[in-house]
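[step 3/7] fold_predict: job queued, chain A
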Amino acid sequence: MGYSGQYLTDEEWMTLNAAYKAHGSGPEFWQVYQELQVIARSRTGDSRIKVANEMARVAQRMGVTDRALFV
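[step 4/7] structure written:
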């Protein structure tokens, strides 16, 4: 798996990173983010809360947000 353990594959992380570089923290980025969150939940079978929290960590590490909010 990629950047965030079991949540994003390398390809998914590159997609998310490319969206951030292209759109900053605009709506286009968040659309990709949400799509990948659904994919990660489907792949892992983890709860929405667990996946949402891990994806929030990813966004924070990427610099999209200064401080992630956790569910």
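[step 5/7] annotate
The mean pLDDT is 89.
The chain has three helices and no strands.
exit 0
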